[in-house]
Write a structure and sequence with these properties.
heterotrimer; A mainly alpha (147); B alpha/beta (662); C alpha+beta (73); B: 662 residues; alpha/beta; Rossmann fold; Helix Hairpins; seven-stranded mixed β-sheet; two-stranded antiparallel ribbon; 27 helices; C: 73 residues; alpha+beta; SH3 type barrels; 6 strands
């Protein structure tokens, strides 16, 4: 990683952190779905697998970061973007479930709306998203990030 | 009130539909071009004492028509005699768009150029000298940003001005090499003598089109008995050479105009390229796509649930109100079982359809859908399908009708036929209530898994059918996959919502009426002959069911289930409704089913599989007939569906019974 | 000269020849894929490819990609 200026170094390190947190979130979700409850997140096996996929994207970004900076930028950008978008979807989905339960007159906890593991993983990825997207769009105005 | 007819033309993805919506707002309707199911949207806009009628043509890259979409655009431009043509050009990619301009200019119709997405061009550091463009093309150029509604007023004023200006339009001429111009004269002179056969086409323009390879025009002239110089006397190598010369001349012209009027001030490295590298990655591409689809379906189901519950409440309310009023039992039955049941059947699937359309619309606007098609193409190619079929398949999970209509972007007839035959195996939202009912009653906690299995089975059968038809019937490869990947854009929530509203409204008008009518028919058949107990074995419905029941005896279906299937032909939503009627009331349907000794889980599964596979509803069949344009293939599609459904239901019943030991 | 289906991601190439003259060649021509044009290979999967010409991006499946012969710049 020659010639990295400060912002890039921090972002790169943050990518590594986000890889771990997303991976853990995914594993917990899968375990919850399989019955090993910790009560932290909503049980969600497919969601957990998707989180692992995104963690793999971040891992690829970390690996690429050593030699191929544009690669790091693109993979971490997409990983963070997907995470945030999916977190938004998860909130909407849980709101829908919540509303349905309420309307059927059953018990529902407001907290379930933010109990999807996606949301917590995404919160951590937001700084990464902001930082990397600046780099990405900096490219289109003749910046020096990509080449 | 002066009426002006204009056509909106342009490349795909340049914002034609957005401009159309801006121009006409709610004053639009969708019609069919005679003979084809390609839809033409027509709308109206008033200004002062002029009434402008706008027709939105399908997007095309050129006037050489290879798909039904392009043919419709070509025919409209060449034969419908509009007062003016408005071409929408994407300001971020002028050079490519100008190719179509060079072709449109030659037709001789008054033209206006709407330069769209000026804001994006500015962001990307592109400066466009609109005056220079205008002078070069000799066509008025209006800057617009259709998404934000900017420039629309000026565009309309220019349209009125150009259309009411009575002198013939003289646009820039394209400099063709001598080899081409000599033939233009040769053919043009010959055709001048037969000008009456050309309709409104000028002989010299017809000459150019023939040399570019317009097969349709060629055929038409041959049928009228003409022998065209050069076209009919030279070999294909020579003709291809001339066609290529014309092509190169067009590109040269576009390049010249662009260099003169467009300047790019900043160094441009494409972030979109980097994004593409991830989204179409050979490893990650498909999993990313599947994740998006997972969330899309989750959203669709969970967003529509609250609406369903709300609808149930409203119905309960109306039924209670009715119970409080004294009325003739006949009328009561008509209102509660017929009307409310009918409206209910329609409303029940409306939320999921709208949400699905909205999501697909947003995905399409961002540009991701094209990447997904590319990513899936390799897989689809190996089972004999064209990558482009995948968008119709996606839509098919919402409703088969718009899915089948979406196949018109496929080039080859074989691709289209195979796709249309396999779309009905994508389980549409209308079939879901049947699964929910039977899986819920007979499989309890495992219901979710059973339903998931059904969806997967549908996909598997679709793949199998595609393979069979491709290898055994057509014996060729799907046509090569070529698709433009539009630039990534931020989806405008508003534009997507408008789009969803119009598509959903069209769909409701078509399908809603059929379904409502179907429920009324069920009610009638269940009530007659007079005096019979509603929905019993002695009613007309019951009699019909018992007549057909022997056909389904090997599958274990009782007569009520058979009636459900027959009415399911009208619309799948009606299956649950008719079963409710025949079992003595929808509220008790679940317990009645559970208590019926002729039914058990394996039969329930076989039934659900049959409903999944057998044939699509009447609305879908109507569209299939239109797209296939003959009864032979429509019949094959129907027959194949029923055959596959019967075979699979049979296998499930007998294998299942063995497994359970019943 | 190699067909597009054998190029590598990131290469910049020039089109030297297009095999065949049927509908496929005409469609490619209309999109701007003609002899002498420069392309950038954005992404290369097993046999299919995404190329950029100027401002436009096109995805070509295996069949189409093998019909376009190019030379690296």
């Amino acid at each position: 990683m020659n010639n990295t200026t400060y912002p890039h170094q921090y972002l790169y390190g943050w990518t590594g952190i986000v890889t771990l947190t997303t991976c853990i979130a995914g594993i917990i979700s899968i375990l919850e779905g399989a019955g090993i409850g910790t009560g932290l997140f909503i049980p969600d096996i497919p969601g957990g697998c998707i989180l692992l996929l995104i963690a793999a994207l971040f891992a690829t970004a970390v690996i690429k970061g050593r030699t191929d900076r544009p690669g790091w930028i693109s993979f971490s950008y997409i990983g963070a973007l997907l995470l945030v978008v999916f977190a938004g979807c998860a909130i909407l989905v849980e709101t829908g479930h919540f509303l349905t339960l309420i309307m059927e007159g059953e018990e529902a906890h407001l907290l379930t709306i933010v109990s999807s593991s996606f949301i917590w993983a995404a919160i951590l990825a937001i700084p990464l998203l902001i930082g990397v997207s600046r780099l990405l769009y900096g490219c289109s105005c003749g910046g020096d990030c990509c080449e | 009130m002066k009426e002006i007819h204009i056509l909106l033309a342009g490349n795909p993805n340049v914002g034609k539909t957005t401009l159309f919506n801006s121009l006409c707002g709610v004053h639009q309707h969708t019609g069919n071009y005679p003979g084809v199911t390609v839809e033409i949207k027509t709308g109206k806009r008033q200004m002062n004492d002029h009434s402008i009628i706008v027709s939105d043509l399908p997007g095309t890259y050129s006037l050489s028509a290879f798909t039904p979409d392009e043919q419709v655009a070509r025919d409209a431009l060449l034969t419908s005699g509009p007062d003016a043509v408005v071409q929408i050009i994407d300001a971020t990619n002028i050079e490519r768009n100008l190719f179509l301009t060079t072709q449109l200019m030659e037709i001789g119709l008054p033209m206006i150029i709407a330069l769209n997405m000026c804001d994006l061009a500015e962001e990307q550091g592109i400066t466009i000298d609109a005056d220079c463009l205008e002078k070069n093309l000799k066509i008025p150029v209006v800057r617009i940003v259709a998404r934000k509604g900017e420039g629309i007023e000026e565009l309309i004023k220019t349209i009125i001005q150009v259309s009411t200006h009575k002198t013939p339009a003289v646009h820039r001429a394209i400099e063709y090499p001598h080899s081409v111009t000599s033939h233009i004269s040769e053919i043009g002179n010959y055709l001048s003598a037969h000008a009456s056969l050309l309709g409104s086409l000028s002989p010299y323009y017809a000459a150019i089109r023939l040399m570019e390879g317009d097969e349709h025009l060629e055929k038409m002239l041959h049928e009228k008995g003409l022998t065209i110089p050069f076209i009919d006397t030279s070999d294909s190598a020579e003709r291809d050479g001339i066609a290529e010369d014309i092509l190169l001349a067009r590109y040269k012209t576009s390049e010249e105009i662009t260099t003169c009027s467009v300047k790019c001030t900043m160094g441009r490295v494409m972030p979109g390229d980097l994004i593409d590298q991830v989204l179409t990655h050979r490893l990650f591409g498909i999993p990313i796509f599947l994740s998006c689809m997972w969330f899309a379906f989750q959203l669709t189901f969970s967003a529509s649930n609250p609406f369903l519950v709300g609808i149930e409440y409203i119905f309960g309310y109306f039924t209670d109100r009715m119970n409080g009023v004294d009325m003739d039992p006949f009328v009561r039955s008509f209102l509660s079982d017929g009307v409310i049941g009918g409206v209910g059947s329609v409303l029940v699937f409306v939320p999921s359809i709208f949400v699905l359309f909205l999501l697909l619309s947003i995905l399409e606007d961002t540009g991701y859908l094209a990447r997904a098609a590319f990513v899936m193409d390799r897989l689809m190619h190996s089972v004999g399908l064209h990558g482009r079929s995948f968008i119709p398949f996606l839509i098919g999970f919402g409703c088969n009708v718009p899915a089948i209509m979406a196949t018109r972007t496929l080039q080859s007839r074989a691709d289209r036929i195979i796709t249309i035959i396999t779309i009905p195996f994508m389980s549409c939202t209308a079939r879901l209530p049947v699964y929910v009912l039977f899986a819920g009653v007979f499989f309890g906690a495992a219901a979710g898994n059973v339903i998931f299995f059904l969806y997967v089975l549908g996909i598997a059968v679709a793949i199998l059918s595609a393979l069979i038809f491709r290898r055994l019937v057509f014996r060729d490869e799907p046509s090569p996959f070529i698709m433009e990947l539009p630039p990534y854009r931020k989806p405008s929530g508003f534009a997507a919502a408008v789009h969803m509203w119009f598509k959903g409204r069209e769909y409701l008008k078509r399908a809603g009426l059929i379904i409502f009518g179907g429920v009324i028919v069920v009610w009638v058949l269940a009530t007659l002959p007079a005096g019979v107990e509603y929905g019993s074995a002695d009613s007309l419905a019951g009699i019909i069911g018992q007549v057909f029941q022997p056909v389904f005896a090997p599958l274990g279906f009782n007569w009520q289930l058979v009636v459900g299937l027959i009415f399911g032909f009208i619309a799948k939503e009606v299956v649950v409704g008719s079963l409710g009627t025949l079992y003595g009331g929808e509220e008790m349907l679940e317990s009645s089913l559970a208590a019926d000794p002729t039914l058990h889980p394996v039969i329930a599964l076989a039934y659900m599989v049959f409903v999944l596979l057998y044939l699509p509803c009447v609305a879908a069949l109507g569209v299939i007939r239109q797209e296939m344009s003959n009864w032979k293939w429509t019949g094959i599609a129907i027959g194949w569906g029923i055959l596959v459904a019967y075979v699979f239901a049979f296998i499930i019943l007998h294998v299942g019974s063995l497994v359970i030991g019943a | 000269m190699v067909p597009l289906s054998l190029t590598k991601s990131g290469e910049k190439v020039v089109v030297r020849s297009i095999c065949g003259t049927g509908h496929l060649a005409k469609t490619l021509g209309q999109l701007g894929i003609i002899i002498g044009i420069e392309l950038t290979i954005i992404q290369k999967a097993k046999e299919s490819v995404i190329v950029r010409i100027g401002e436009s991006r096109y995805a070509l499946g295996a069949g189409a990609a093998s019909m376009v012969l190019v030379e690296p710049l």
